Amino acid sequence: MKPLKIAMIAAECIPYVKTGGLADVVGVLPRFLRQLGHEVIVILPRYAAIDYVRHGLKPLMAQMGVWMGNVQEWCAVHYAENEGTPVYFIEFNKYFNRFGLYHDANFNDYQDNPYRFSFLTRAGLQLCKDLGFAPDIVHAHDWHTALAAAYLKIWHWNDPQLGKAASALTIHNIAYQGSYSADCYNYLGLQWANFTADKFEDHGRINFLKGGIVYSDVVNTVSPTYANETRTPAGGYGLAPYLNNKGDNYWGILNGCDYEHWDPAIDTLIPARYSAADLSGKAICKRRLQERMGLEADASIPIIGVVSRFAAQKGLDLLAGAMESILADMRVQFAVLGSGEKSLETFYGQIPGRYPGRVGSYIGYNEELAHWIEAGCDFFIMPSLYEPCGLNQMYSLRYGTLPIVRATGGLDDTVQQYDEASGAGTGFKFWEPSARAIYYTVGWAVSTFYDRPHHIQQMIQAAMAQDYSWEKSAQAYQALYERALAVKG
Ligand code: ADP
Prior knowledge:
Rossmann fold; six-stranded parallel β-sheet; alpha/beta
């Protein structure tokens, strides 16, 4: 395949800003696409939360004009390199000079989000023009930049720089669609003739993701099972018909796992390194985790880990409903890391006090502790109601920490069910989204730990041998781009 020029426009990207898996994809995929010979640039907002000095940002353009409807906005552009990938930061203080990405400290969404992210999207396209970068592919991510394809087709179809660009849209989570009052529609500059039910209009509002799906040449999501789920009424959150309209031009590509940062053989954040051939370091990680989280330091007790956003999607209210019965009936420990919904922060923040030595928790975001939990636990639980791809179960597999998961989305695609007869499999899966199902599946895992330790060892070996590398994902994205070019024609 001939080398492509690819412009990615996104709201998050590691190592600069991250709230979820989207940031991992935008931060890592470009590097692997470049290894396949493609040229990639990434365009992000310059949020106040981005550390200018630490990340080596430099001013690039003092003034760039961006048309929004009938208004011309003037922004600045800064530049940095992320492991060799050029990254451009759109500075527009009115919209991005805030610490939150999408909401304030009280989790109230910023009222001007549709203005902020449509501006980012148009600024990204304008920047391509101003840089003289004529992309073959404009790759948008989630609702924030989904309108890129619409802008290409409505405004730039005949443009010397942008006219030949095909568009790809990756949906990382279909529950977040960017649905807003049509008051912002003039500013978006999408023309009222397009405010129709087959394009942007949705229950009288503007729906960014819907418009992006309709206009993009290809659309993907982040696992094959999630692609199937989103094609159904319940899983599609209202957008299933539009995804089904894409036919063969919508499918699932599993995210890669960043094994450079998440591999116990080279992880510098954990107390000791280990591999499938020599697991002695994992025992050290377990003891140090027990000490750090106030758990009884006993290697014979299995620890179940949680690292998660506390959001309804993650099913942690169901786990909360099962946890005390599990603690009453089973000799087991929990290590919980997360933040988000206040009621769950309260529950998980307080439960160690009621079960001293048996439950440890840290409410907040802590990268190092996330690595310690992956390394030091025996099991890792993800009872998600839905999970587009999920990264933590892939990390868990590589760390030999057996996942206990609800069989949905990427969790179903990456975890193989334990077979009690042969000891095959890499984890424990359940289907029913209930506290009861969690209780019994945890019970199954814990009894396997005590009664069939040879199976646990066999599963650890199988889990650590799984390969969800970015090389494979990047090749799948290359195929997506090829399809986009064919659709664009
Ligand atoms: P999502 O994107 O829905 O949050 P993923 O499993 O795809 O879920 O990605 C979550 C990422 O965020 C993982 O890298 C995980 O380790 C990290 N993470 C989530 N919560 C925390 C936390 N409280 N502290 C540290 N890392 C976290």
